[in-house]
Amino acid sequence: MTTPNLDLLDNLAIELPSWAFGNSGTRFKVFGTPGTPRTVHEKIADAAKVNELTGLAPTVALHIPWDRVDDYGALRTYAQDLGVRLGTINSNTFQDDDYKFGSLTHTDKTVRQKAIDHHIECIEVMNATGSRDLKIWLADGTNYPGQGDIRGRQDRLAESLATIYQHIGDEQRLVLEYKFFEPATYVTDVPDWGTSYVHVTALGERAMVCLDTGHHAPGTNIEFIVAQLLRLGRLGSFDFNSRFYADDDLIVGAADPFQLFRILFEVIRGGGIDLGSPVALMLDQCHNVEEKIPGQIRSVLNVEEMTARALLVDTDSLAAAQETGDVLGANGILMDAFYTDVRPLLARRRAERGLPTDPMAAYAASGHAARIAEQRVGGTQSSWGA
Ligand code: LRH
Ligand code: MN
Ligand code: MN
Prior knowledge:
The chain has 13 helices and ten strands.
């Protein structure tokens, strides 16, 4: 057996979404949690705490306008002082009355221009924060057959994206996220990886696909999509989360650790965690009933754990079994790695790096939750959307 190269774990960097630290909920109720951030600064501080305990989360993604501030340069410095950087800037054209019938796809040119201008504002934010990626997810779509011209909407989308792309700097990228339904229930204008791929390839080399693991029909083979997009050189980023039903935004690896393992195996296979890889690993989650900081700690540890297991796959033996048609042997090699408990090994690695061996326990013992609950009284707790 060849020695697994666990050194690749050193390259693992998982970006945290600012909105995961705010309160969120369902259509029925948003439960508040003591200590929830009231400002983007407090969200960044929470993300920095996750990074401090895990050493795995050096960047924080922002969502505009939820995280809008007057001085992004100052916010950048604030984050750096806490040991993290500002990462992906997510645009938002899904919470404004003007976008009822679409944003970048709207039939009304003035609404399209408003949505384009919002993206230009996001690129200006990126210039100030030093962010590389503009992530676009659109709620655009229709609910009833006949409601919109499917093809016309694609044409307008292509034109709007091309206008935005012209503003993307040489060191920046546009990543286009797809989702098969919700909020639209009949047509979604960017429903699948193929549509995202078609649009980003038309734009140019600095446009990539974003794969949110919760955005597929049940039963979809996500690792196949990962393999294909890596093959095509267009996998720009992940929004990791897990789900039992629809876009549940649960802790990554909570619903189906084996699926996460399979996805990460393909990421590694395609060079996705090699140094300088174009693949950004981001979380996109909401913690509706669980505590948020430990929720994020658990999430990054789950990604680390499944990456380590995927790195344990004896790829030489696997290739040999595949080439000789040894179906059960090949499957067994993959499963051996999946069933290996890497937790003691990862605890040792943390100790070697001066990190707590058990970050969840370290957080629980730190008294941090009680401290922020006491400090963060008054003001309005952030919620998904503000
Ligand atoms: C859409 C989505 C997208 C948004 C986020 C809040 O479902 O996954 O990434 O920006 O949720
Ligand atoms: Mn997402
Ligand atoms: Mn989503």
